[in-house]
Amino acid sequence: MKLRREARLLKAKAVSSLRNAVRAFNDVDDVGRTTTVLLHLQHAFEMLLKAGLVQRRVSVFDNKLGRAESFERCVRLSREHLELSDDEARTLRAIDALRDDEQHWLTSLTEGLLYAHCRAAITLFDDLLTRVFDERLADHLPHRVMPVSAEPPRAIQLLIDEDFAQIRQLLEPGRRQRPDARARIRSLLAMEAHVDDEEVIVSKKDVDRVERAIKKGGEREQIFPKLNEIGSEISGEGMQVTVRFVKTGGAPVRLVGPDEDVAAGAIREIDLQRKFHWSGKELAAKLGLSQPRFHALRRHLAIDTDASCRHVFVFGAQGHPRFSDNAFVRMRDALANGLDMDDVWRRHRTRRSRRS
């Protein structure tokens, strides 16, 4: 594959940062190890996504600010142009959220969770490198220096349970280890990115709420309901082990008001305008459909009845439907998989289209 010059330079930076992350993971010195690993992992993926987008001639610059797009924006663009799956996007957001707290405040990640995320990162980096550039990570990084651990990878739910039990112990009266407990709480909150379809930003309010719930004796499944939905797929042995995080669909999450006194976990405030950022006109144009056919496809796929795909913003007496990346991906994939739009149009064109 002939690479564009900027794509080649960005890919080289991505591989370099990944090598630094691997080197730090295998370092015998624990001082600053987790920080170094997370910083380099996040940077490796940001450079790799930008390399792939540049190679496919997608702009990665914000014209208003005159600077390169943020990590979150690159993830969104990669959903459109690099076939990034939902689970892959969530893994990237989790790594970014863990890095953010590690860089800007305090977080504490157990060795088991750090290893799981590093192995998942290695697997995903190799997948993306192959998908976009038709290269394998082994071409750039010898197998002998892949992240290794004295223990085999364990199920993510078991690791989360162990971490939660340690947090409860740290918060016991007289332990005087509250800062350590709150740092671990931040890590678990950051891991909710494996479930959310939006960028996760851990706030002090989130940590305070979780701490209060733990002190009241709440169980992990109640305090961190989103973490119940995280699963891990582990295959291979030794140096060939691969780890992928997946969303399994756990118990339903009950939302409560900000002042409601219940033993609930972090109730994260989501910026709905960021999640549902497509207008109907923009999405139709992106899909290459006329407005009538766009309406027909929406009805055929039941987009308007899916709360993760469509939200109506009400301003005064007017409602303004907006669509998420989930809607875009579902509609794009349906078209790419050979959906007969002529048949969809015949079946739905007689119904009255709603204004979007």
Task: Describe the overall structure.
With about 350 residues, the protein is mainly alpha-helical. The protein folds into 2 domains: about 5-245, no CATH class; about 275-350, Multidrug-efflux Transporter Regulator, Chain: A, Domain 2, CATH 1.10.1660. The protein is built from 14 helices and 6 strands. The longest helix is centred in the N-terminal third of the chain and has 23 residues, at about 35-55. The chain starts with a helix and ends in an 8-residue tail after the last helix. The model is unreliable at about 250-265 (pLDDT under 50).
Low-confidence stretches: 251-267
How many extended strands? Answer: 6
As a percent range, the share of strand residues is 5-15%
What gap, in angstroms, lies between the N and C termini? 41 Å
* Number of helical elements: 14
Structural class: mainly alpha
Radius of gyration: 22 Å
Secondary-structure element order, as H and E?
HHEEHHHHHHHEEHHHEEHH
The biggest sheet, with number of strands, parallel, antiparallel or mixed sense and barrel status, is: 2 strands, antiparallel
Q: How are the strands of the largest sheet arranged? A: 1-2
Whole-number average pLDDT? 85
Q: Count up the domains.
A: 2
Q: Per the principal axes of the C-alpha atoms, what is the gross shape?
A: globular
The level of helicity is: 40-55%
